[in-house]
């Protein structure tokens, strides 16, 4: 079990640029979640997938954000036309949907800085 | 909708002293509750979880928490603090009454341990 991995760990970009992050969940975990954490706050839910289907997306999420999980394995989160307010830690988590189990395991996060 | 309130954004204790981190929740369904720990520049690690079994839950690193429905609380305790416990702690509630639903986090409590 190699855990949840995220790439890159750090990303610095200029305002207006597009960025894409990748998350590799624990193998066989069928649920995958994205959260965003700003300084001094707890993580905030963005979206989740069950296998390849995106089942829920936060109403707080701008249309500039899009996420995919092709083939139900890794996932990507893209932010278009980045803004300074997008600066945050983006966390990915995965879980196995099974009765009585299924807690979420988190990756180390991708820290985005928008200049 | 679910919500979590962590009382005290900063808690400071001496090494060897009792650790008490407070968490109150609001949930429209029987809750699943979690405590996570986050070390600097790392993702979240699960300390313990309540999933409607025993109300006193034991976790890793000597931590435990007690679910009190009448008080809507899930406070985290450790009898004797260690320097390595210094970190940020997050209480979270699952939205679906399962352990794999999306999580709503509190704002976090930073624990400082003095020698």
Note down, in words, how this protein is organized.
The complex is a heterodimer of chains A (115) and B (115). Chain A has no helices and eleven strands. In chain A, 0% of the residues lie in helices and 49% in strands. In chain A, strands 2, 4, 5, 6, 9, 10 and 11 form a seven-stranded mixed beta sheet that branches. In chain A, strands 1-3-8-7 form a four-stranded antiparallel beta sheet, with no helix packed on it. The mean pLDDT of chain A is 92. Chain A is mostly beta strands. Chain A starts with a strand and ends with a strand. Chain B has 115 residues and is an all-beta fold. Chain B is built from no helices and eleven strands. Chain B is globular. Chain A binds chain B through residues 4, 31, 33, 35, 40-45, 48, 56, 91, 93, 95-98, 100-109, 111, and chain B through 4, 9, 34, 36, 41-46, 49, 51, 90, 92, 98-100, 102-108.
Total DSSP helices of chain A: 0
**Segments of chain A where pLDDT lies below 50 for 5+ residues?**
none
The largest pleated sheet of chain A is described as:
7 strands, mixed
Please identify the structural class of chain A as seen in this structure. mainly beta
Query: What share of the residues of chain B lie within helices?
Result: under 10%
The average pLDDT score of chain B comes to: 92
How much is the radius of gyration of chain B in Å? 13 Å
Q: How many beta-strand segments of chain B? A: 11
Number of E strands of chain A: 11
**DSSP strand content of chain A:** over 45%
Provide the residue-averaged pLDDT of chain A: 92
Oligomer: heterodimer
Question: Largest protein interface?
Answer: A-B, 29 and 24 residues
Q: What is the CA-atom radius of gyration of chain A, in angstroms?
A: 14 Å
* Number of alpha- plus pi-helical segments of chain B: 0
């Amino acid at each position: 079990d190699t855990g949840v991995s995220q790439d890159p760990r750090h990303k610095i970009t200029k305002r207006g640029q597009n960025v894409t992050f990748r998350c590799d969940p624990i193998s066989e975990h069928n649920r995958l979640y994205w959260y965003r954490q700003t300084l001094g706050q707890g993580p905030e839910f963005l979206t989740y997938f069950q296998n390849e289907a995106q089942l829920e997306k936060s109403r707080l999420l701008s249309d500039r954000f899009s996420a995919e999980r092709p083939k139900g394995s890794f996932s990507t989160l893209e932010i278009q036309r980045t803004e300074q307010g997008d600066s945050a830690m983006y966390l990915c988590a995965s879980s196995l949907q099974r009765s009585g189990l299924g807690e979420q395991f988190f990756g180390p996060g991708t820290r985005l800085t928008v200049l | 909708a679910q919500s979590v309130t962590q009382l005290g954004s900063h808690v400071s204790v001496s090494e060897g002293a009792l650790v008490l981190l407070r968490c109150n929740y609001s949930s429209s369904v029987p809750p699943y509750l979690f405590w996570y720990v986050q070390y600097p520049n790392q993702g979240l690690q699960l300390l313990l979880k309540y999933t409607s079994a025993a109300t006193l839950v034991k976790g890793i690193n000597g931590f435990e928490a007690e679910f009190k429905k009448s008080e809507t609380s899930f406070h985290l305790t450790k009898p004797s603090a260690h320097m390595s416990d210094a970190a940020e702690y997050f209480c979270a509630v699952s939205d679906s009454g399962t352990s794999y639903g999306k999580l709503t986090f509190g704002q976090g409590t930073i624990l400082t341990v003095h020698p």
